[in-house]
Structures are given as structure tokens and as C-alpha cells.
Design goal:
The chain is of the alpha/beta class. It folds into two domains: 2-111, no CATH class; 121-383, Metallo-dependent phosphatases (Purple Acid Phosphatase, chain A, domain 2), CATH 3.60.21. The chain contains eleven helices and twelve strands. It has helices at residues 2-26, 33-43, 45-55, 61-89, 93-111, 113-116, 153-167, 188-194, 222-235, 280-283, 303-308, and strands at residues 119-127, 138-142, 171-174, 201-203, 239-240, 244-250, 253-260, 293-297, 314-317, 346-350, 353-357, 375-383. It has a six-stranded mixed β-sheet, with helices on one face. A six-stranded mixed β-sheet has the order 6-7-8-9-11-10. Helix 1 packs across helix 4, helix 4 packs antiparallel against helix 5 and helix 7 (153-167) packs parallel to helix 8. 39% of the residues are buried.
Length: 385
């Protein structure tokens, strides 16, 4: 969808620039030649990105960062210009100039403070199924770190660890997409920064963790890359749940914690509203339905199958990032993600089941967050009679 939208806007930008400059010339207003060249050059940035992709055999972290900043430049230079043209056409050039300038400043803010300032959301979960010993159990969730595209990994991961540690949770749950393309992004420096998280961490894999985005699959086989991502998480002391369940115990009480790995076969369907989950009977086999169950799964589309299986009193997911763009008039707000997903951000309740979709802390495609700020969620379980 993002590629389609970008292509449409690229063609619209070329057409709008051509129309604007011809209109100016008819009115006898000469357009600066340098500005005309600059305008069409910025319009062409997505085409440059596509051309680079055609000639490159692989898509390592350096190339992905190049793509990311190229797309950012296109957004920054083209979108405000299109907004200005719209108001200029409506004979409100000063209003258009003011709004285009404000949008440019907002985009720059989203690339700096909006991209890095972590928002802590506090959520209370009430249920009569919560064991008495877990009344008051506090855990943090974070998701979608995408460490390979972080602009300043040391600063951003240090801030992430400090934010989580300041909450003093009993546990931390990570819901996938630790890397962006390949396991090498989890180098010693990155691993040491993530080891700073003090509470025990349980995690699952996401669609970016399983190696299916690697172009040079001969040198970097997907299965081997997925294995290394899991191996390096375990080397950090994290417990990676690969389609399995563990039991958290307090005194004589316990609850079940199930982790569902991302299925590489779903890569091309990762944005579908509904996904198959034929392996759930195997994943939940032997898990007592009487226990309160927390399920970690990267993609929120599996919430309904998890509910249908009778589990997931609380399901935690990520994946969507709210497309790193959210308007917040009230409540959940609005994001282009609604065009793709039924459940795309925040809390959803249905009967005794709750889904929470974390907006993530990292970023892909462009290094900005506009309204969909980086998120760490602190959950507190409360037993109610």
C-alpha cells in the first residue's frame, strides 16, 4: 500500500509542478530555473530509490538507511509543496505558504523529538480470572525496535532501557521485529545496550526477524538468519517463546504465557485483515484453559483466532506502528492504518478478552513519527470478584 501511495503521489507531484510552472509562465511570472530543476529532482527521489534497488544485489543495513533518508527527503520537500499548490490554486497563496511552512516544521519535529521521545502508556487489566497472587503484577511491553535503522542506536536504546527500568516492572514482554533485515544488526554494541534492561524479558519473533526480507538469500539463508536472531536474544538473557508456553508462578498461583512466532509463510499476507492460524491447536496443546493466559504475538490479526481457541485473556502485539502517523483528536485517534487493519493501535476489548497493539519504538520506511509516538506500555493486573 505504501509503495502504491508513493507512486500515486510521485506522479501527482510531477503533474502539479508542471501545471504550476506553466500557469506561472502564462501569467508572466518567470520561475527560477534552479527552483524548477530542484522541484523535479525531488519529485524523482522515489524513482532514484527504485533504480538503486534494481542494480543492487543485496539490501544490507547501509542501503536500507539510504532508502529511509531518501524517502524522508521526498516527504519533506514534496508534500508541503503540494499543499502550497493546492491553496495557491484556490487563490489563497499566503495561506498555502503558511500551512506548507507549518507542515515542514512539523515534519522536522517528527524527525527529531517525535522520533525519539518515548511515551509511557499505563493500562490496567481487570479480570476475575487473574490469580490472587498476581493481583498487582506489573509488566512492560515494547515492540518493533528495528535496531538496524536507528539513527543513533546508543542514545535511543539507552533511553529505551532507562525508560523501562524506571518503571520497575516485574517482567518485560517484547512482541517482535527486533531487527530490520538481518541478524548482524544485533552486534555486540546493540546487545550490550539491550542487556541494560533489568527485568526478565520474554519475546517473540516478528516478520522482520525471520530473514525473509534479505535479497541475497544465497549468502544469508532466511532460516539461518532467523535462528541467529533467536540465538542472540537468548545470549542477551531473553527468553524467546517459539510457539510455546511457559508458566509464571507466584506462590501457589500461576498464569500461562504463550508466545507465537511469526510464520514466514505469511510474509506476503502480513497486512491482510485476517490471517490463518491452523497451528494454534498445537501451540496451545496441554495449556489448561482454566489458567489466565497472556499471549504474545507480533501481528494483531491473530487475536480473533486466539480468542476462538479459548485463550488470550490478554493478547499483546505490535507490527503496525500506526504507520508512524496518527491524528489524535480523541481516544485512539486516526491513522492510515485503518485502511489495512481492523485492530491497529491501543486497547480492544471483547468479552473477557483484551488485545493491546503497541505502537513500537523503532521506525521503518522513513525516520519520523508523527502522532504515533514511540511507546512503552506498563500493564497492571487487577483481580476483581
Amino acid at each position: 500500500m505504501l509503495l502504491t501511495l508513493t507512486l500515486i503521489l510521485t506522479l501527482a507531484a510531477f503533474a502539479a509542478d508542471g501545471f504550476h510552472f506553466r500557469r506561472q509562465r502564462r501569467r508572466g511570472t518567470p520561475a527560477c530555473r534552479a527552483f524548477v530543476v530542484w522541484a523535479f529532482a525531488t519529485d524523482a527521489l522515489p524513482l532514484v530509490s527504485g533504480a538503486v534497488g534494481l542494480v543492487c544485489r543485496d539490501n544490507g543495513p547501509g542501503l536500507m538507511i539510504f532508502y529511509m533518508w531518501l524517502f524522508w527527503a521526498w516527504i519533506l520537500f514534496v508534500i508541503p509543496r503540494l499543499l502550497y499548490y493546492l491553496f495557491h490554486f484556490l487563490k489563497l497563496p499566503r495561506t498555502g505558504l503558511l500551512l506548507a511552512g507549518a507542515l515542514t516544521l512539523f515534519l522536522l519535529w517528527g524527525t527529531t523529538f517525535g522520533r525519539t521521545r518515548i511515551r509511557v502508556n499505563r493500562v490496567e487489566i481487570r479480570s476475575d480470572r487473574i490469580p490472587e497472587a498476581f493481583d498487582g503484577f506489573r509488566f512492560a511491553q515494547f515492540s518493533d525496535a528495528h535496531v538496524g535503522t536507528l539513527v543513533n542506536p546508543e542514545r535511543e536504546l539507552t533511553r529505551l532501557a532507562d525508560t523501562i527500568n524506571a518503571l520497575r516492572p516485574d517482567a518485560v514482554f517484547f512482541t517482535g521485529d527486533l531487527v530490520n533485515i538481518r541478524s548482524a544488526e544485533l552486534d555486540e554494541r546493540t546487545m550490550s545496550l539491550l542487556r541494560r534492561i533489568e527485568a526478565p524479558v520474554w519475546s517473540v519473533t516478528g516478520n522482520h526477524d525471520v530473514g525473509t526480507y534479505i535479497r541475497d538469500s544465497i549468502r544469508y539463508p532466511a532460516a539461518e538468519e532467523a535462528r541467529k536472531v533467536v540465538e542472540r536474544q537468548r545470549a542477551m538473557g531473553w527468553c524467546v517463546l517459539e510457539d510455546t508456553t511457559v508458566y509464571l508462578r507466584r506462590g501457589t498461583d500461576s498464569l500461562s504465557l504463550t508466545g507465537i512466532s511469526f510464520d514466514p509463510a505469511l510474509r506476503k499476507r502480513r497486512h491482510d485483515r485476517h490471517l490463518p492460524a491452523d497451528n494454534l491447536p498445537t501451540i496451545y496443546a496441554g495449556v489448561p484453559a482454566s489458567l489466565y493466559n497472556i499471549t504474545l504475538v507480533h501481528v494483531p490479526q491473530l487475536w480473533e483466532p486466539v480468542m476462538a481457541a479459548g485463550y488470550g485473556d490478554l493478547t499483546l502485539s505490535g507490527h503496525v506502528h500506526a504507520m508512524q502517523m496518527k491524528i489524535r483528536p480523541r481516544g485512539r485517534g486516526w491513522s492510515p492504518a485503518v485502511w489495512l487493519y481492523d485492530h491497529w493501535s491501543g486497547r480492544y476489548d471483547e468479552g473477557r478478552h483484551t488485545l493491546y497493539v503497541n505502537d513500537g519504538t523503532g521506525y521503518v520506511a522513513y525516520p519520523m513519527r508523527l502522532g504515533a509516538w514511540p511507546e512503552v506500555t506498563l500493564f497492571t493486573l487487577k483481580r476483581c470478584e
